[in-house]
Every structure is written in structure tokens, then in C-alpha cells.
User: What shape does this take?
Amino acid sequence: MKVLMFGWEFPPHITGGLGTACYGLTKGLSKFDVEVLFVVPKTYGDEDQSFITIADAGDVVITERKSTNQEFWDNFRYMEVGSNLIPYMDPEEFKKIFDEKILTHTEFSEEVFAQNFKFSGSYGKDLYQEVARYALIAAYIAANNDFDIIHAHDWLTYSAGVAAKAVSGKPLVVHMHATEFDRSGENVNQKVYDIERSGMEAADKVIAVSNLTRNTVINKYGIHPDKVVTVHNSVEPISLPDFTVNKAVKEKIVTFLGRITYQKGPDYFIEAAKLVIDRDPNVRFVMAGSGDMLNKMIRRVAQLGIATKFHFAGFLKGHEVFEMFSMSDVYVMPSVSEPFGISPLEAMMSDVPVIISKQSGVAEILKHALKVDFWDVEDMADAIYGMLHYEGLSKMFKKYGKVEVENLRWENSAYKVKEVYKSLL
Amino acid sequence: MRTICFYFQVHQPFRLKRYKFFDIGNDHYYFNDFENKSIMRKVAEKCYLPTNQTFLDLINEFGDKVKIAYSISGVAIDQFEMYAPDVLESFKKLVATGKVEILSETYSHSLAALVSREEFERQVKMHRDKVKEVFGVEPQVFRNTELIYADWIGEYVAEMGYKAMITEGAKHVLGWKSPNYLYCNAVNPKLKVLLKNFKLSDDIAFRFSNRDWEEFPLTTEKFVSWLNALDPKEEIVNLFMDYETFGEHQWAETGIFDFLRALPNAVFKYSNFTFSTPSEIINTIDPVGAIHVPHPISWADEERDLTAWLGNELQDEAFSKLYQCYDLVKQKNDPQIWKDWLYLQTSDHFYYMCTKWFSDGDVHKYFNPYDSPYEAFVNFMNALSDFIIRLEQE
Assistant: This one.
């Protein structure tokens, strides 16, 4: 079975959980004899691996990368879409070129590539254009490769998936890692919502990363329940880097680690911290990360008068994350809306007991984590206090939590994904 | 007698280094030596050395007729000793002429007067001892941090034996009154109060090089004509400003040094004004009445109040958490703790947390080593958290 897969990022260049999830999933699929042709926009110029050019249409350089992951390389092809891409086109022009050039399987003419454009690859003002351009390239790739199934991850690639389906007639699976409602609350961006909905409508199956997300897809996007399947994410076993951390403060540490945005619920963490500090001054709280709510959070901590017990650690990179975990006694993920949520799993692998909001997908699969409603700060404070003071509780969560996480396998998720593929063939 | 009183504030804080959460409990040194040294050297070359030389030349040229007053914060003196002994030598030369008066202040340019009389008096004494040690003089006149003044602060200062204090001629305090007279403290009339003429001071300090200013360019003749235009009954014109005005805020290229060099001559030639130190003024001129200042004033920003340092949530939290340490600092009674305690109190740390961006933001930004007040707050609180750990350790 061959799958044409569209992503937006892939390790080592990742900005969020999507790249990690794509890596785990494709790796898992390779164990079940699924061949994957993975396409991402090439957003960096610094890859030092050797590239083999497999297609060259005008100035569009599509390169295939030799992976160092020999383990599953046999069933895996990796494509990057080159950086000299097609300039902006309005939807009509796009359709014209699409109909004339792609559907008739002709090569792109020179004039289309007359101007250079660089994929920024991140969320910028040209995002919609890039999504559209990515779709055009996707159609070209679809016309020139053999596969049985198309699989697109998150809204940025949905247009690409739809275009590939139009060209090839092969079934399309779209994978919802996060919905616009998770990112923006009720103030959704209509354009993004529309892309998400039309992608799911055009798809033959929709995979949601949790039942929480599946419900959103059904209730807020009006997708028929029969079409939507839940496949929970998993986590790659990590080998903890070798380091010693000199924990220099004697107090126990409660940690929040993530983007400081509406979705992650940092404000509830601060309110709970205040309640705990009032009860027990021998605790320190750390908020690591950055985001549009950071300044507001700093101001709130000052207002509450807890700034010598509540610290802001900034954005942590690489081993600093594990240093932070190794200093932590409790990890809290108070997300308002979290389709899945991989960070508590990483904390558990580092022997840190976790408290997670019931409004997260990961709460559906974890047994050894305390679960609270994000808005119930008293309950959250109670859970933190208990985890810090009742050693039996934290010991049990550490011990069984680690085992529980280690038993999560991407192969299990991949197996379910393959079942979805099979149902479409 | 009609006279001009030149007074300059000389101050450099010990700026904090980037102090991260991971440093708390591990690293007990909070200051950015490299940055402090390079800023000190830069300001020394651009401002302190050339301006001191200019004044020394003027004193040599005009003898007894040119007078100046300085307040040099203790933390500035400490940094001169560390990074710019040449600057300290040139100040000593100026003081040795006998035409220069040194004023008292808090050692670390702190806001201690607002919160702890005990700590305030301790710092004033420390500064007094330092000035005596370095310059061999005993100040008679007091200048509180950033000209912060209120009736009760004047009362503290009078009880410490000072004869006069200088502050801002803030409009909301003066009303119809003129800053160009000598006043006295409302509680203790023995303490004289000199008020800054902010119009004429800021013409030099802020507007000198502003091409949008209708009076640009400012010449010494024009400036003296403004002095002559004052009511003949008005006796003193207090020109108070940051010393860094010369060469740092107003670059040498603006002609500020030429203006300074030519000013005394123009004053003597075209007017009957003289120059005096604050001590000479209080010995020769009688106060016209008391000035009532129930709420603290300062020379900062349009509001002339404390809001550059205190008032927003960040500043108030940092300030209250810092001074909650005082009892433990005293109990600990350790030389290194005393020193860090002193340097952490410097008002600049709170100035960096100011969020009044729109009216005076430009000035604030110019002096600010941080990208945002939030960053300033987080960094200060991290360092303070470590300081508290040291205080609580057995």
C-alpha cells in the first residue's frame, strides 16, 4: 500500500507537535508495510543531508531526501518542495492553470514560474497564498507519482490533499490535529474554518486525534459521524539526555510549560498558584514559554503579589526542557482546549506526576494523571497541593505513569490508521 | 543681587545582568559588569571628561565668578573607582578649586525616603562619609533622588542638620508663584528650598538640539535675553539638569559644548546676573515664604510625580517585596548582603518597569537596557528571589 502524505513540517525542523506526530505515525506505518511518500514545503536551507533531485519542473525544485533513519527508510520517501515557487495567483487564475495544466497532465510552462517566491513555511501574512501554491505543487506531484491513498495533516495541507484527489481520483484522508476552535476559542478565523470544513467535506475519511476533537468536527463542522474516526496520538520513547541538574532551590516546583496563549489556560494556572502559595509558602511555580498572553500573565502575578514565588523562565530550548522537568515536582497542563497534548506524556517519561485538564484529548487515554476542569482553579489548587504533600499519591503517579506512557506505541496508532486506509480501498 | 545656580546630577546605576530562573539559588552575582563598564567608559569619554574640562577652563578663566553644584551618587562614585578613575580625578580637581559645591543624597540613588526613614538616613550618612573620604568636603545642602521632595522628606532632611534642599519647581505645586525665589520647608522653616526653573533648564537639557523647536537654534545671546526678560524682582534662576546633557543626551556635534563655553561670558557681558552655589544663595538671600508639598514631587516626566518609578502593578510588587527584606538584611548583617541590598535599591530598576510609553516613552526607552517593562520586572524579581533565599539561609 502506497500513501501520498502531505505535512507542513518534519523533524529535525519542527515548531510544534505536528512534526513530531507525523514522524511517529510514518515510522509506525512502515512497520505495517505501508509505503509513504511524504511531502513538505522546504522551509530551511540548512539541511546538510545529501539530496537527490527526483523532479524538476521549471524552477520548482522538488527534492527527495535521504534520511538517516535507516530503520524505516525502506518504505519511506521524503519530498521537499523547492523554495522557488509560483507567485501569487487569485482563485480564478489558480483554477485556470489548475484545469489547463494539471488535469491534462501537461508540464508547467515557463511563464508560471517567471517570478520567484519563497515559502515562508510559518504562519505569516502570505499563508493563504502559500496554502494555494502548495496545492498546485501537490497536484503536480500527484500527477507524477503512483499511490493508493492521500493523507493530509491539518488545514494547511488540506487544499493540497483536495487537489491531489482531484487529479488522481484516489481516496483522501484528512487528519485533524487541532481545530480552529482549539486555537482561537469561539473567535474563529472564518477563512481557516472554511478551509478546514471544505477539506473534511472533500475527504473520504477524517481522522481526529481524540474524541474531544471528533466531537468538535461533528458538532461544529457538521461532518457526518460515520466519516470521523478517532485515532489517539502516541509518544516516541525518548532517551533522556545525560545531564546533572543542580536544583538550588529547596522548595518544591510546580511547572507550566507551553505556549502562553488562550488555548493553554495559563491564567488558570496562576490563579491556582495563588491559592496554593497562600496555603503553603514553600512552593515555587514556574511558567516556561512565550506567547501573546505573557505580559498579561506577568502583570497578574505582580497584582497577586506572588512574584518572588512565581517565576517566568522564558522559552526553553532542547535540553533546558528536560532540565526543567528534572527540577519539577508536579507538571500542570491546564489547557482550555487541547486536541491531544503530548507534553504531559513527556513529563511522565521524566518521572514527573501530571495534572491535566479534562478538556484535553490526552485525558481520554491516561489513567495515571489527575484530571481537573481547567476553569475549576480551586480543584486545580487542591490537586497541586495534594500532589506536593501526599507522597503516596505522587509516588504512585510517577511509578505507574511512566509504565503507562511507555506502553503507548505509535505502532498502535499506525495500525488504526492503516485500518482506515483499508476501509477505503 | 540676581544669580544663576547651576546644579548637575551625576549618576550611573549598577545594571543587572540577564538573571534567569535557573540561576536562582546558584548564582549570587546580579550585575552586568561588562555593560556597566562599557557604558561608564562611553559616558566618560563623551560627557564627564570633556564637560569637567570645560568647567575647569571656565573657572580658570573667570576665577571666582563661575560656580557649580553637583550631586554624585554613591553608586556612580563606586563605578568611577572601578572603571573611570580619570573621571574621579577630574571631579576632585574641580572640587579643589573651591568654586564647586557637592550635595548630599542617598548612596544608591534610591527611593528609600518614601518607605523607610531609617534606611534613608543610613544611606545619606553613607554617602556623606564617602564624599568626605573622596573629596574632603562636608555637604550642607541636600538633593534627594531625582529631586523627589515632599514636606515630610524636607523635615527628615532638616533634622539631619542640612540647611537647604533642592527640588523641582513643579507647576501643580507652585500655582501662580515663581520658582525664581528662595522658599522654605512648610514644616520646618529653617530648611530652605531651591526650585528648578524647568522652562529654562529644559531649554538646554531637552530642547537644545530639537530642530522642530521654534526657538532653534539656541544661542547664548538668546538665552541671556530670556534671563533679562524675567521680572527684575526675581532673584535666582535655578538651572538643574542631568550632567549627561552635555555630550551624551546632546551630542558634541549639536554645539552644546560651545554653548556652555560661551554662556558665562555672555551672561557677564549682557546681563547683571552672577553664578552662585546653593550654599551661597541661602546665606545671602531670604526666603519669600513656605512651599507646601503634601504629596511627593520629582523632576521626571510631564507629571512631575513618582509615576516613573512607582504606581503600576509591576513596580509596586517589586518595590514592596524588596523593602520587606529590610528586617532580614539587618539581622543578617553581612557585608556582601548590605552591598547587594544597596545596589538593588537603585531607583533605575523601577524606572525600567515603567509602562507610561506614550508621553515620555522616548526618554524612558533611551535609558532602558530592557526591551520591555515586563522583561525588566521578571529579571529583577529573579535576582530578588535569589537575594531572599540568601537572607533566609541559616
Q: What stands out?
A: The interface with chain A takes residues 20-22, 24-26, 313-314, 316-318, 320-321, 372, 374, 377-378, 381-382, 384-385, 388-389 of chain B (CB under 8 Å). Residues 313-392 of chain B form one domain. The longest strand of chain B covers residues 2-10.
